[in-house]
Design brief:
By secondary structure, the chain is of the alpha+beta class. 33% of the residues lie in helices and 31% in strands. It has helices spanning 13-24, 50-58, 101-110, 157-162, 189-197, 241-255, 258-265, 307-324, 328-359, 369-380; strands at 5-9, 28-33, 45-48, 71-79, 86-100, 116-119, 123-128, 134-138, 141-145, 147-150, 169-181, 198-204, 207-215, 222-230, 271-281, 286-287, 290-292, 298-299, 391-392. A hairpin with a 5-residue loop joins strand 7 and strand 8 (134-138). It starts with a strand and ends with a strand.
C-alpha cells in the first residue's frame, strides 16, 4: 500500500486514529479538520478495555505514558429505602482503563505521523472521480485521493454520500455529563476512597448514574466524571443548556444518597453538557473508495461505552485490512465485513441496555447480587461487554 493516498475527513479521535492506521500501513495521509482550534480540551471521560489499551500502546497508537486511572471493580449502589444513605447492591469484576478525552486526542494527534493535518478547512462535500478515486472539496479547492475515510462524526458529509438514508433514532431519554475536580470531594472521603478502586453505577427510579475518576489535564490532577441517564422533564419544561444542570441536581436531590447528591450539586464543575440519546448504524461501513469510521459509521447508546473504543478498533481493523490486501478496494471490503457487523451488534446491545437500565429500570433498592447478575445477563442476551463481568456479593 506504499504510495496510497488517503484523505481523512475529521481530525478528532477517530480521524487521528485512522491517520495512524494508514501511515503505519505505508499510505500517504492527509487529515481535514473543520475546527481551527485545538481539540484537547473538548469532551469528558472515556473508558477503554485494558486489553485494547495494551494493544494500542504496543502498536504505536498511544504512548505508555498517557495517563489512565485503571480500576477493576464495578460497584452497584442505590439509596436505601426510607433513608438518604447508600445501599450497596453488588460488586462486579469489570476492569476498565478510564482516560480523559482531551489527553487521548492529544496522544493520538502526536502519533499521527508526518502526514498533513489541515485545520479550519471544513469539508463541504466528497465525491467520486472518473478514475474510481475520491475527491474532497473544501472552500479552497479540491484534492483527489485513492481512499477517503469519513471520520466526521454523526453529521458526516461522507455518510451522506455513502448512506444518505440513515438517520438517528431517538431513545426518548437524555444523558447529563459532568466533570468535577477530585480535590472537591475532600468532604466525602468514603466516596473518594470507593472511586479509587472502582467505578460506580447508582440506580434510581427511571434511570441511573455512572461515576469514575479520570486524569486531569494538569500533571497529577484527577477529575470525577459522571453521566446521569433519565427521562426529560415534563412537556413544556425541557431544559435548555443553561438550566440542564439544575434539572440533574433536582434528580440527585430527590433520588441519590445524600453524599452523592451533594457531589453532583457542587458548583466546582469543570464541564457540563446535556445530550439526547440516539443511535443509528449504516448497512455497510465501506463502499469503495469511501470508508466510514467512529460515529460516522454508527452511534450506539452510551451505555456500551464504545464511542471512542469503536473508533480505535476501527483504526486497528483498517491497518490490518490494508496490510493484508492487494488493493484499496479489497481492504475496504475486508473492513466493511468486520466493522459493519460490529456496529450493528453494538447498537443492538445499547438498545437492550437502555431498556434494562432506563426505560424499564428495576426497583433498584430491592436488588442484590443475584438480581444484578440476572439483570446483566438478560440485557446482554448472550452478547458480551467488557463492562459486565462476574457478580460478587456485597461488602
Amino acid at each position: 500500500m506504499t504510495g496510497l493516498r488517503i484523505g481523512v475527513v475529521g481530525g478528532s479521535i477517530a480521524g487521528c486514529a485512522m491517520a495512524i492506521a494508514g501511515a503505519r500501513a505505508g499510505a500517504d495521509v492527509t487529515v481535514h479538520e473543520r475546527s481551527d482550534g485545538e481539540l484537547q480540551d473538548r469532551g469528558f471521560g472515556i473508558v477503554i478495555p485494558p486489553p485494547l489499551h495494551r494493544e494500542l500502546v504496543a502498536g504505536g497508537y498511544l504512548g505508555a505514558d498517557m495517563p489512565t486511572t485503571p480500576v477493576a471493580t464495578r460497584v452497584w449502589l442505590a439509596r436505601a429505602p426510607g433513608r438518604r444513605s447508600a445501599r450497596e447492591l453488588a460488586r462486579q469484576q469489570a476492569p476498565v482503563a478510564p482516560c480523559n478525552w482531551g489527553l487521548l486526542w492529544r496522544a493520538l494527534r502526536a502519533n499521527a505521523g508526518s502526514g498533513v493535518y489541515h485545520r479550519g478547512r471544513p469539508v463541504t462535500s466528497v465525491g467520486r472521480t472518473a478514475s474510481g478515486g475520491a475527491v474532497i472539496r473544501t472552500a479552497d479547492g479540491e484534492r483527489e485521493y485513492d481512499l477517503v475515510v469519513g471520520a466526521d462524526g454523526h453529521r458526516s458529509v461522507t455518510r451522506e454520500l455513502v448512506a444518505p438514508e440513515v438517520r438517528p433514532v431517538p431513545a426518548g431519554y437524555l444523558v447529563w455529563r459532568g466533570t468535577i475536580p477530585a480535590a472537591a470531594l475532600g468532604d466525602h472521603p468514603a466516596q473518594l476512597e470507593l472511586l479509587e478502586s472502582s467505578w460506580v453505577t447508582l440506580g434510581f427510579p427511571g434511570g441511573h448514574g455512572v461515576f469514575y475518576l479520570i486524569p486531569g489535564s494538569a500533571t497529577g490532577s484527577r477529575l470525577l466524571a459522571y453521566a446521569v441517564y433519565a427521562s426529560p422533564p415534563p412537556a413544556g419544561t425541557a431544559p435548555e443548556a443553561p438550566v440542564s444542570a439544575g434539572y440533574v441536581r433536582d434528580i440527585a436531590e430527590e433520588h441519590f444518597p445524600a453524599e452523592w447528591a451533594d457531589i453532583v450539586a457542587r458548583g466546582e464543575h469543570r464541564s457540563q453538557a446535556l445530550h439526547p440519546v440516539a443511535d443509528f448504524v449504516v448497512p455497510r461501513a465501506a463502499e469503495p473508495p469511501f470508508l466510514l469510521a467512529g460515529d460516522a459509521a454508527s452511534v450506539t447508546r452510551p451505555h456500551t461505552a464504545s464511542g471512542a473504543v469503536k473508533a480505535l478498533q476501527d483504526a486497528l481493523c483498517l491497518e490490518r485490512s490494508l496490510r493484508a490486501s492487494a488493493s484499496a478496494a479489497e481492504a475496504l471490503h475486508r473492513y466493511a465485513d468486520e466493522r459493519s457487523a460490529e456496529g450493528a451488534r453494538l447498537v443492538g446491545l445499547g438498545r437492550r441496555l437502555g431498556r434494562a437500565l432506563v426505560e424499564n429500570a428495576p426497583d433498584w433498592p430491592a436488588m442484590g447480587p443475584a438480581e444484578v447478575a440476572a439483570l446483566s445477563s438478560a440485557a446482554l442476551d448472550g452478547d458480551d461487554s467488557y463492562l459486565y463481568g462476574s457478580v460478587q456479593r456485597q461488602r
